[in-house]
């Protein structure tokens, strides 16, 4: 049975962007062949998926990063929080290989990886199973005709609202101001999310427990100022339907 959070059962949304970049180095190929099978999972046919079952030992909570790129942020969070089960989803093989190298280098044991579309995972997850979600510098798709490709969509927010625990945090970041506006408008319009900002510093600066990503560093080097948006999943309350 499918959880079907906004995706019709069996439906696979169109995936845009690259799956592979420059030729993988032999070490990266080795990691994809030897390390990935033990750390990766597929979206199961039988849903909903309780992500705690993906980890060999009990975890305090499960956090998810969508489109982790080279995995710098995901690996850093996993290393900082060894009792958390960190899930990451990425479709770009070169990025996955980079994360695997970091996992090996740091001896990280609490990461599980989906090499597939993050939207399928969100739709498949059990209700109230995520304690934190990160979507950092997602592809901005700036052209008007491409904006519908943006991953932070009302459908995704509905799926996250369902999969996130009460009080769970959603962290979004981008250096594309048009996308930032759209993210903010969509999340503010969503009944399940509350913006945590109290003043400009809250969206102009990362919190101390928010490691930088590769795309963020590229944006800063190019003189662009990213926006950091933190939302809390509102309490459902006894009779709430959101
Ligand atoms: C602009 S990069 C940012 C990467 C990283 N978060 C960072 O800040 O450095 C966006 C990433 O999202 C990935 N991506 C795009 N759509 C995705 C999807 N539907 N599911 C999983 N990953 C996706 C892309 O492959 C790409 O690596």
Which properties best describe this structure?
242 residues, alpha/beta, 7-stranded mixed β-sheet, globular, binds S-adenosylmethionine
Name the helix and strand elements from N-terminus to C-terminus, one letter apiece. HHEHEHEHEHEHEHHE
- Low-pLDDT segments, ≥5 res: none
What Rg is obtained from the alpha carbons, in whole angstroms?
A: 17 Å
Tell me the structural class. alpha/beta
Heterogens: S-adenosylmethionine
Question: Helix tally?
Answer: 9
Kindly state the percentage of residues in helix. 25-40%
**Residues in β-strands, percent:** 15-25%
Task: Explain what you see.
The chain has 242 residues and is of the alpha/beta class. It has helices at residues 26-34, 36-39, 72-80, 93-106, 118-124, 154-163, 177-189, 200-204, 214-221, and strands spanning 61-66, 84-89, 111-114, 130-136, 164-174, 193-195, 227-233. A seven-stranded mixed sheet has the order 3-2-1-4-5-7-6, sandwiched between helices. α3 links the parallel β1 (61-66) and β2. α1 crosses α4. The longest helix is centred in the middle third of the chain and has 14 residues, at 93-106. The radius of gyration is 17 Å and the shape is globular. The two termini are 21 Å apart. The mean pLDDT is 94. The site of S-adenosylmethionine has 23 residues, from α5 and α9.
């Amino acid at each position: 049975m499918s959880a079907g959070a906004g995706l019709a059962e069996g439906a696979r949304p169109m995936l845009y962007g690259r799956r592979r970049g420059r030729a993988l180095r032999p070490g990266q190929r080795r990691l994809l062949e030897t390390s990935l099978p033990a750390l990766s999972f597929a979206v199961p046919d039988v849903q909903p998926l309780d992500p705690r079952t993906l980890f060999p030992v009990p975890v305090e909570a499960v956090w998810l990063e969508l489109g982790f790129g080279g995995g710098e942020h995901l690996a850093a969070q996993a290393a900082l929080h060894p009792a958390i089960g960190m899930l990451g989803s990425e479709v770009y093989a070169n990025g996955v290989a980079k994360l695997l190298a970091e996992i090996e280098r740091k001896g990280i044991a609490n990461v599980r990886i989906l090499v597939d579309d993050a939207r399928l995972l969100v739709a498949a997850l059990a209700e109230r199973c995520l304690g934190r979600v990160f979507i950092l510098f997602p592809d901005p798709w700036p052209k008007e005709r491409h904006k519908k490709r943006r991953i932070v969509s009302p459908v995704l927010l509905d799926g996250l609202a369902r999969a996130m625990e009460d009080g769970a945090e959603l962290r979004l970041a981008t250096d594309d101001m048009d996308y930032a506006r759209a993210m903010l408008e969509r999340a503010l319009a969503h009944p399940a999310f509350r913006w945590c900002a109290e003043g400009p510093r809250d969206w102009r600066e990362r919190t101390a427990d928010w490691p930088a990503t590769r795309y963020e560093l590229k944006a800063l080097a190019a003189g662009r100022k990213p926006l950091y948006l933190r939302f809390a999943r509102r309490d459902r309350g006894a009779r709430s339907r959101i």
